[in-house]
Amino acid sequence: MVKQERAARTRHALIQAAAAVFAEDGFTPASLSTISRRAGVSNGALHFHFASKHALAEAVTAEAARTVRCITDRAQEGQAHSLQCVVDATHELMSRLADDIVLRAGFELAALPARRRESSLRTQWQHWVEDSFRRAEHSGSLAHGVSWADGARVVVAATAGFEVLGGGDVSWLSRPSVTRLWEVLLPRLAGRAGLEALVCAGSPPPPGPPAREHPALEHPSRAHPAQEPPVQTRPAQ
Amino acid sequence: MVKQERAARTRHALIQAAAAVFAEDGFTPASLSTISRRAGVSNGALHFHFASKHALAEAVTAEAARTVRCITDRAQEGQAHSLQCVVDATHELMSRLADDIVLRAGFELAALPARRRESSLRTQWQHWVEDSFRRAEHSGSLAHGVSWADGARVVVAATAGFEVLGGGDVSWLSRPSVTRLWEVLLPRLAGRAGLEALVCAGSPPPPGPPAREHPALEHPSRAHPAQEPPVQTRPAQ
């Protein structure tokens, strides 16, 4: 293994270990020696890569932010309907929060009183949801009487709630749970004309071979489409 | 001052000081000497009342749970419509989260990985919302096609989101912000027959002299009804 590759692997292992220790012990009690031991590297190697525990927290947050960006970019790929983008991104975000320790730790670090103002992770998600709702309003896809700001507020709050409640009870993050959220919300948020085309359980897999741009973000329903048939929205009341 | 009264005051001051220090420093870094200094009592007095920092956290959580119970009891007093009870309780909960340091600390302690399973504060709120939605379904007040479980899930998630996001940006907790949440949700959750009677901004003050049962929970719009006229729900789409 060349030197650079080994350094990158060590850095990756340290970020994973830090996220796991922050999640189990909390950020403040987490010790650097526990993190280096968990990563299987020496204290010296940890200090070579990260000057402090705060630097490790920054790296965890940056990695989580990159994942959120991948999720939102991927949701927009080839998807014209902005509300469906938000539905798809929400499914992907919750699914990843259930099994990606770095993403989970990134959001939990963002909630700490001491780091709340520094971290942009929640803001990044909020801005993307707001931009999507602005596009939906611009294209006339929102229900009459619902502004982009009011629609986005409900979705940002509900997804923050799912994220936090999912930290204690992972069933909040399941695909059926997120689907039922959208079954309640979409008939209120989407205009009648476009509602029938929206899929609360997330977009079905695209035709042809699976996309390979983001192999780390393999979509469960794309990998095993037969396991979970898409649930259509119920008609508006 | 008699001895018992003095002891109760010291205990109260210690719980307030602990909540403030937990909120500012985080639970783990918070030191008992900082808490006793902030409460204006000796370390000995602190240890007389609380054997450990965990005992203080338990007391903060119990006090927060009592406040949540007062809020939900009060919302149900004389209010026949279960969905209006939930609207009113949500306004009161968010308003109190903005200025009651013990309630805020109670919810933040409940979110800590180490205490997540012990604390019943979020569960207490969730169960009350679920019971209210069950009553609404039983009385035929929910919109056709919306189950009590799905309605409650959205409200529990959205209120958890408001609580967490409000920790970083207090504008989430304002009455207009919570009102706009209900302007989106109620036309989807409530049956058409009862929708017109529901007030997204919270119930108007009852006739006659203001109730005195829970003076600590004075409702801003009851105290100054002229400042914020109730905003009616928009008609369903």
Automatic annotation (TrEMBL), chains A, B:
Keywords: DNA-binding, Transcription, Transcription regulation. Residues 31-50 bind DNA. Residues 200-237 are annotated as: Disordered. It holds the Pfam family TetR_N. Residues 211-221 have a biased composition (Basic and acidic residues). InterPro entries: ArpA-like, DNA-bd_HTH_TetR-type_CS, Homeodomain-like_sf, HTH-type_TetR-like_transc_reg, HTH_TetR, Tet_transcr_reg_TetR-rel_C_sf. It comes from the Bacteria. SUPFAM superfamilies: Homeodomain-like (SSF46689), Tetracyclin repressor-like, C-terminal domain (SSF48498). Residues 8-68 form the HTH tetR-type domain. PANTHER family: HTH-TYPE TRANSCRIPTIONAL REGULATOR BETI (PTHR30055:SF234), HTH-TYPE TRANSCRIPTIONAL REGULATOR RUTR (PTHR30055). This is TetR family transcriptional regulator. It comes from Streptomyces asoensis.
